[in-house]
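Possible regression after last week's pipeline update?

I re-ran a chain I had predicted before the update to compare outputs. Posting the input and the new output here so someone can diff against the archived version. Not blocking, just want to make sure nothing changed silently.
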Amino acid sequence: MTKVLAVDIGGTEVKAARVDAEGRIEDSRRRATPASLAGFRELAAGFVAELGGGTSAAGVGCKGIIDTVTSYVRVLPGTVHYLEGETLSEVFGCPVAADNDARVALLGERRWGAAAGRENVVMLTLGTGVGGGVLCGGKVVRGAGGAGGHLGHYTVDPGGALCICGNRGCLETVFSSRAIEAAAFDAMHRGVASALLEGPKPPSCQRVFQAAMAGDAVAMGIVNHARKALAGAIAGMILVFDPEIVILGGQIVEAGEFLLAPLREEVWRRTRGLLRRDVPVVRTRLADPSGVLGAAALALENSTVS
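New output (post-update):
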């Protein structure tokens, strides 16, 4: 059976695995994300040596804009910015198929998860930032320069907070763990009465959701504001792409129906006038390690042996 090496490059950790064609993980590794290119090269070589044996292809998911033909990293802000301008096949010392991590996650969902059998899908990954992937007519939207599907930079508030991309009011400046934590910190700085004042400071995104679930007014206000922005963005994406389904992944969706039930209602309210049908908004089926399985799906698509 075909086996591939799959790697998910994150801002805090890098995950790698040897995966078979059925999506079964045979062996895996998790390592802290190196602080330098030299450290990353060493890590990559270790993954290839430890997990690459018997594999027919390799797939890599990484943030930013990547040339999917050459694996050249065109744009990559953040922790692993040192990979910008590098060709991942050279970094790993072997041919690799590489793409944006959110699009890679969508490939995993199409092969083994919630997008199986679907031709038109929108997927959002909700974590420290917001990633996105779009499937139209069975094909992943990459655009003219590889930037297609960067849904986290969909503008929801033109006069809003400054985003790392240089724009203002991107979705990830409102609905991301980083944005929610910033809103909580701002509330605490203003001295509002809230359970968020208790415990470690600043409060984590998880704590904000927990406080909101417990009825804390400040936390509920933060979550509701973020949720409405997300609903508006999803509604806009639905009206643009007309998908069969919208898939949400990432740590924030662990809030479950507390987040999803009112989100679905708001999305339906915003889209029913034109669509006259309900577009399901669901959680990813793959969960952790969806990034690795997505990278495996990418490798399998590019493998000469299927």
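Follow-up from reviewer: compared with the archived run. Residues 117-283 form a domain with the Nucleotidyltransferase; domain 5 fold (CATH 3.30.420.40). Marking as no regression found.
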